Model the fold of this input.
Amino acid sequence: MRLSVPKLVWDGGGDREIEFPDSWDVHYCPTRGWDRPPMTDDQMREAFAAPVGTRRIRDLAQGKKEVVIIFDDITRPTPVYRIAPLVLEELREAGIADEQVRFVIASGTHGAHDNKALRAKLGQEILERFFVFQHNPYENCVSVGATTLGTPLSINREAMSCDLKIGIGSILPHPQAGFGGGGKLILPGVSHIDSVARFHHTIMDSPPATIGMGNWDENPMRQETEDAARLVGLDVNIDALFNGRCEVTDLLVGDPVLAHHEGVKLAKDIYATQLTTGADVVVTNAYAKPNEAAIALVIGIRSINPSGGTIVMIIDCPGGQVVHYLLRRFGKEYGGRQYAARGGLPPQFRLIILNPQPDMTSTDLFVDPAAVIRAKDWPQVLSRLREFHPDGARVAVYPDGTAQYASM
Done:
């Protein structure tokens, strides 16, 4: 049996062909909204014309002096290069000149972006016309108060210097917050590392049933991010949702909390995936967030037979895994302030990572690199699968494990 999964979301796109023996029991498990049709530019403009819970941007911008557009980083598939020009159209209608506008990247505690990454996110024209500033989580942040749960919030100084704040991001399942988007653009997006560290401690103090992929309604991190958006005074937020090819299918424009609520209602349906349980082999592809590939392991663990089996993670990411100053390692025995050394999977499980351009440290966020079986192409993977499962296997294939959550 032959299947294909998407690859290289930021590097040209395409498909990776994978195959299994015909005698194997193979289950292909896409999201419910995998084939949802993409939006046209005119449909996007309609979303700008009818914002949720607030006035449209051109009205909010009247009389403003300085404007910041905060946008998500390369770990999210948001095509800011397509959405930002529509924001700029609105600002132009309000008489806002280019020199009044700047862009700030909501990279949280991720590493800084070079211009190759910024061109991918913004397009060359925006880089030429506007100042685009990196976020430094260690410096140039100002206090804006504390959240309901007690997180002291310190925010990017440049963003806080502006009297109109606009966000561009996306809503995808998130392994801790349930769903991303909304106020996550602020916390952790443009927050000081001390604020981000305290925010992450919320996870440790939370009942397991309230956090995790798709768990949003009672998630305490949701309260934190909504508080952050209000404290900062984020005026309007724009969140994209995607089909299986990371094409924008829906655009929520409006109040950062109210519009996000509407977007999550859609997201719960669009990204829901019927889980195949008891699989001997699980293939989980890191597509929407290839540089945060650890997320793809979540659905794989839920799908595998508890008595043992093989998980295959596909990581097509020429740029490698994102630098994470809070969670990744920076030496053989140490890392960021919340780094934890990872062991291997339990002995009844095997983990194969298909990565055409592998590096030793790429798995340090989720598993001991010594516990990984590496492959550079699918024939190498299939050879190992035949070796481990000579009598055949029940197989589950998740075409984008970074954008899927299990719906039983």
The longest helix spans residues 80-93. Residues 4 and 17 are 4 Å apart (CA to CA). The radius of gyration is 21 Å. DSSP finds eleven helices and 20 strands in the chain.
